[in-house]
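Worked Example 4.2. Consider the chain below.
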Amino acid sequence: MKGNDGFTPLHVAVSNGQLELVRLLAITLKADVDVEERIYKLTPIHFASVIGRVSVLRVLSSECKANIEKTDIFGMTPLMISVQFGHVDLVRFLVKKK
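Applying the procedure from the previous section yields the following structure tokens:
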């Protein structure tokens, strides 16, 4: 299920840092963790990189196997976004995942 902008409930849950809801949607209900929103082609893991929640990023990348190399329309990966927003913990986590 997507809105007109291409956002899914998983995008919204990640944007709000709702870890348990992310788990429910991604793990229990098997939501597509690599789904892109319509305008910038951002996936839920890109959103996690913007908000700086390591716990959400860990669930998406480790437990759900979201693609950490996926780029948006500007060629930005979750690692690049984490650097841009100064999320040191996320940068460390993503560098270790590579």
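The chain is about 55% helix and 0% strand. Helices lie at 9-15, 19-28, 44-51, 54-63, 78-84, 88-97. Compare this with Example 4.1 before moving on.
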